[in-house]
Design goal:
heterotrimer, A: alpha/beta, two-stranded antiparallel ribbon, globular, B: alpha/beta, seven-stranded parallel sheet, 10 helices
């Protein structure tokens, strides 16, 4: 076994805790809220788990379950084919995402205070430029994660549904064009259900995060947890979705590698 | 004078639960003419369509002219108690736990003499109204009731064995999110239920009328999603031993037949809420209800399903939904047989299109949620098993009984 | 359409009954009905000094013989009869068996007919027999609480008492007299004296029926032989004559509640057939599933004018030495009801009385005896009724 080299050093760092593995994933459970679309449309199936056997007459020495869920249930990954703007791009399905894209650095933009004050908070270019003043220009090929504190909310406040739909924070059309075109990000991640704001159906274009990310072959991450455990820069995200044939995305375990010094 | 029921005391957790025992449940095929009448709440007697003679008990040839053409006929239920007896000891396992028990011979105006159970307010010589009701074995029996309603009539112990009265019983309504569910909750509170457990799925979504329900006296809201096995089992673990009547109002109504849909996802949702929802509820709540069938004044007694009448014959405009309702109906029939050993009745309430959002473009007549709710309370009070609510449901039933092939064409 | 012509009833000259046999009753028995019937057959052969091969006619009555009927018993017992009958008709079994066997012997279809009634009583056989008794009972009686016929007869008794003015004291008088008779009868299962106070204060079963209105189900068998008088004489067998008999079923169907039986239709014809004045008999054996039914029979059999039965009972005594000896061995109420053997009990006792072979108390100068059969309540009334007049040799 190699004892020198980058990976060896990395393995040592993991063993000593110099590099911490942080789980950014919500537990898949039946009561986790899902995206709610107008009733006439197909809906996002909630997570369901049915026992097959549990050391009983159905299987004496084993316990296992059948699960049903949508590709976009719980903490999940969006591939470019998920949106109409990305439908014709090459390698746009979840099984065709190049593996090298599945381990990438992340920038975390903290707008917790603003989102707490206003559930419909919209991230603008100005917020990103202010962040860059402090932490430096966002490098190309990184994840930009919008930290809002939303993951700590109870289910009802998390979905925050009212008579006119969901009220949750998200990015503006302009900031998405900016991040994709001028900063060449790998993907955008949020703590909320969806990379877009709850009221994004009223934006122009509607659902701009989906539109611009996937239209340019980039990825989305949603329902992230524990973003408050990440530094503003320096974390490395590990984000391999299930290799579903022709899939539009999948629930996954999102891990962040964080240097602790 | 019937002594009014008093609210039952808390169950003694240290005492063994009395197990259900049933009265004799064997009947001839011909006797099931009466079963059908009792299930639907009608009164009739077998009669000869050749000579018109009315007879009882049910026979296979007319005792006047020997014609085999015998049918149920609407006849007057009025009569007189010609003799009565108070049974004080019996070799029958069910009745010996319920002594003394009064029966009598009722001389009906329509002709036959019927041996019947006697309501406590009727005596030898009285004019009475005979009713056919289902007993704990799910079979039809005759009971002589006072000609005119008497105070606290439903509280008579012999009559209460034949009904599913919600008075002082604890009720679970499985879906308080729907208009029907909300109407049922209100109606059960009014009908004297000791408590109504209101199941609410997806509590993270807003629910219309939730506050109004929560504000009602004797209503407790509990999370319950019949599409989630864990949710159903958790609620059953918490309140399963207290559910005397379960009313399943879960619904997932969408229009469309098979060909105007793309994919099976919507059909899956219909089946999850309807057929599989019933399965989950049955597995989680059924065994305990069956066990508690003889457990005192507030014993477990009824399981009500709210179904589309198109479970009986498919309406292609709502073809996929009709199919899921048919699955639910068949499952409910299996459940009926499986709960019977506990003396728990499965009541199926059939309705045509509702005055609710998913039937919005359908022209009237439609059924208001309050009509369903009232029909359920009525069915519970009378101990019915097959209930048809509204004009469309009655119409479908009549057409099916005459020529099922004709209504199949008429609907599609 | 021309009416059918009626022929006069043929008499029973030259046909007699003999060899009264009782297999001592037991409250519960682990043996089968086959075993009890076999014992009775053996008893008949011993009493008449016959071998089983001599029996060329066989009539069986039983409720607990399933899955067999009479035919199964032929091979079971090694019999080869040329005349066979199966009459599972409870309290009517005896007289009905007599009627049919007598005609067979008369017509030369059989020479010696063994008439046997036998039933076993396992610990749960009474409850099982009841629950499978009849279609009407299944559909319209058992769901109503009593588990047996008690509630039905309670309704009949309540109605009869109202109609006739008979009181519990009147009805009880019959039961009390029967117990007095039974105390002399060696096979009676009830051995304690019964007073009217005992009867009146007994545990209520189904108002107005109380404990001593009810028979006790048990296991047992009764039997007799039917043959030509000439054969009885040749074998030195004491015998009784058959003077007349009637039967009628489901009579008065339009009566809302049963207060009379089929005898009321044909009773005059019975006395006429026998050439006896109405009611002029030395003793009467009624079918006593309940004493009120015995009372109904006293009226229908013409022992008193219709409408005067309460008076009649008050004005007479019913012990063996009384003015109207009734159920002289104690009847089923005191001896026990061994299924269909209960329908034979009165007939077998009548043969003993008329041949001077009473096992208990003997009716003095018994020349003519009246035996009545009744039973088979499927819905709300006893359907079968029959009666026979027997005479001494």
């Amino acid at each position: 076994m190699a004892t020198t080299g980058t990976l060896a050093a990395f393995a040592t760092a993991l063993a000593t805790g110099a590099v911490e593995v942080v789980d950014l994933t919500h537990t898949l459970s039946p009561d986790f809220p899902t995206l709610v679309l107008p009733p006439e449309f197909g809906q996002c199936a909630p997570f369901r788990i049915e026992e097959v056997s549990r050391y009983d007459e159905r299987g004496p020495a084993w316990y296992w379950n059948t699960i049903t869920l949508n590709e976009h249930t719980g903490t999940h990954f969006d591939a470019p084919v998920h949106w109409v703007s990305g439908r014709d791009l090459p390698h746009n399905t979840v099984d065709a995402v190049p593996p090298r894209h599945l381990v990438a650095p992340a920038c975390v933009i903290d707008v917790t205070a603003e989102s707490t004050a206003n559930p419909d908070f919209v991230l603008e270019i100005a917020h990103v430029e202010a962040w860059e003043k402090q932490h430096g220009r966002i490098p190309p090929g990184t994840w930009v994660l919008m930290r809002t504190g939303w993951g700590a909310r109870d289910a009802k406040a998390y979905a925050n549904l009212r008579e006119d739909g969901a009220h949750t924070p998200g990015p503006s059309p302009a900031v998405m064009r900016f991040l994709v075109d001028t900063r060449d990000i790998l993907g955008f991640g949020t703590e909320t259900i969806g990379t877009d704001a709850g009221q994004a159906h009223h934006f122009d274009p509607p659902y701009p995060a989906h539109y611009y990310l996937h239209g340019k072959g980039r990825y989305g991450l949603q329902c992230l947890a524990n973003l408050d455990k990440l530094p503003a820069t320096g974390a490395l995200l590990v984000t391999p979705p299930l290799k579903i044939r022709g899939g539009s995305g999948s629930p996954l375990r999102v891990l962040a590698l964080v240097e602790r010094t | 004078m019937t002594t009014p029921l008093t609210p039952p005391k808390r169950k003694n957790p240290l005492q063994r639960t009395r197990l259900p025992v049933l009265p004799s449940g064997i009947r001839s095929r011909t006797a099931h003419l009466l079963t059908q009448a009792a299930a639907e709440g009608h009164f009739g007697l077998p009669a000869c369509s050749a000579c018109g003679a009315v007879h009882y008990p049910p026979r296979d040839a007319c005792p006047k002219c020997l014609s085999p053409r015998l049918v149920m006929k609407d006849v007057s239920p009025l009569g007189r108690v010609a003799a009565e007896t108070i049974i004080r000891t019996s070799t029958d396992a069910y009745f010996r736990e319920r002594m003394p028990w009064r029966i009598g011979t009722v001389a009906l105006d329509a002709g036959p003499a019927v041996i019947a159970h006697l309501h406590g307010d009727v005596r030898e010589g009285d004019r009475v109204r005979l009713a056919l009701k289902l007993d704990k074995s799910g079979q039809a029996v005759a009971i002589a009731l006072p000609e005119k309603e008497t105070p606290n009539m439903g509280d008579d112990p012999q009559l209460r064995e034949l009904t599913l009265d919600p008075k002082f019983r604890r009720v679970l309504v499985t879906d308080a999110r729907t208009p029907v569910g909300r109407a049922v909750i209100e109606a059960l509170v009014k009908a004297g239920a000791a408590i109504v457990f209101a199941g609410l799925p997806e509590t993270w979504k807003p629910a219309a009328g939730r506050d109004a329900i929560a504000a009602l006296d004797r209503v407790e809201i509990h999370p319950l999603d019949v599409t989630d096995t864990d949710s159903v089992q958790e609620l059953a673990a918490e309140i399963g031993g207290k559910v005397d009547i379960l009313i399943n109002t879960a619904e997932h109504i969408r229009p469309g037949g098979l060909l105007d849909r793309r994919g099976v996802q919507m059909a899956r949702e219909e089946l999850e809420a309807g057929y599989l929802g019933l399965l989950r509820l049955a597995q989680a709540f059924g065994p305990t209800m069956r066990f508690r069938g003889a457990d005192g004044t507030n014993n477990a007694c009824a399981w009500v399903n709210v179904l589309s009448v198109y479970a009986l014959t498919n309406w292609p405009a709502y073809g996929a939904h009709s199919a899921s309702q048919a699955a639910m109906l068949s499952a409910a029939q299996s459940l009926r047989a499986e709960l019977r050993p506990g003396g728990v009745r499965v009541v199926n309430v059939f309705s045509g299109p509702l005055e609710t959002e998913w039937y919005q473009p359908v022209p009237p007549p439609k059924v208001a949620p309050s009509q369903i709710a009232n029909a359920i309370v009525d069915a519970l009070r009378r101990g019915l098993e097959d209930v048809y609510v509204g004009d469309i449901a009655e119409d479908v039933r009549a057409r099916l009984a005459t020529n099922p092939k004709a209504i199949e064409r008429e609907l599609g | 359409m021309a009416a059918f012509s009626t022929s006069p009833r043929a008499g029973y000259d030259g046909v007699v009954v003999a060899a009264p046999v009782t297999v001592p009753y037991r409250r519960y028995s682990i043996n089968s009905a086959h075993w009890w019937i076999g014992r009775a057959l053996r008893g008949l052969c011993d009493a008449a000094r016959l071998s089983p091969a001599d029996l060329d006619g066989f009539s069986v009555s039983s409720f607990t013989l399933a899955p067999d009927t009479a035919i199964g018993l032929t091979q079971h017992f090694g019999l080869s009869p040329r005349w066979l009958d199966f009459i599972p008709m409870g309290g009517a079994s005896g007289v009905l068996a007599l009627r049919k066997a007598a005609r067979a012997v008369q017509a030369g279809d059989a020479t010696v007919v063994a008439c046997v009634a036998g039933d076993t009583n396992h610990v749960d056989s009474f409850r099982r027999t009841l629950s499978t008794f009849s279609r009407f009972a299944q559909d319209a009686v058992y769901p109503y609480g009593s588990g047996g016929p008690n509630a039905n007869f309670a309704l009949i008794m309540a109605n009869y008492m109202q109609l006739t003015g008979a009181t519990r004291e009147d009805i009880g008088k019959l039961a009390v007299a029967q117990r007095a008779n039974a105390l002399h009868f060696p096979h009676a299962l009830m051995k304690k004296p019964l007073s009217l106070a005992d009867y009146l204060n007994a545990r209520p079963i189904s108002d107005p029926i109380h404990l001593f209105d009810c028979v006790m189900p048990c296991a047992g068998a009764e039997a007799f032989l039917v043959m030509r008088e000439a054969d009885a004489r040749a074998h030195g067998l004491p015998f009784a004559r058959i003077l007349g008999s009637i039967e009628r079923h489901n009579a008065f169907a339009e009566d809302v509640i049963q207060y009379r039986g089929g005898w009321a239709v044909d009773i005059d014809a019975l006395y006429a057939q026998a050439g006896i004045a109405k009611g002029k008999v030395d003793f009467v054996e009624t079918y006593d599933d309940y004493p009120v039914i015995s009372m109904m029979q006293l009226e229908d059999l013409g022992l008193c004018a219709r409408g005067t039965v309460a008076e009649f009972v008050r004005g007479n005594s019913f012990t063996v030495d009384g003015s109207c000896p009734h159920n002289t061995s104690g009847g089923q109420l005191s001896v026990g009801q061994a299924g269909c053997a209960g329908g034979y009990l009165g007939l077998v006792e009548a043969i003993r009385q008329l041949t001077g072979q009473a096992l208990g108390a003997q009716v003095k100068e018994a020349r003519v005896g009246l035996v009545s059969g009744f039973g088979m309540i499927t819905y709300d009334r006893g359907l079968a009724s029959c009666a026979a007049l027997l005479g001494s040799a």
